[in-house]
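JOB MANIFEST
job_type = single_chain_structure
chain_count = 1
residues = 72
[input]
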Amino acid sequence: MNADDCFSLLLSQRECSAIVLDIREATSKAGAARALIRHDLPEDDFVAGFPELAKWVQELPEEDPDESPSDP
């Protein structure tokens, strides 16, 4: 994350760091979406403010691995 990240979103460096940490801890796109909700950050703003991180999220699986349906 460089100094220009989050500038257009008017977030503090602390807020930006918290968002990045939460997103990096996500194990799926669903987990990343939950992180955006926790930070009250719309997806469009996330993509605009964190383009590299948004690309990384696109490579995650759709659902958390431990939340996939189990075989009976």
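[summary]
DSSP finds four helices and no strands in the chain.
The longest helix spans residues 13-25.
exit_status = 0
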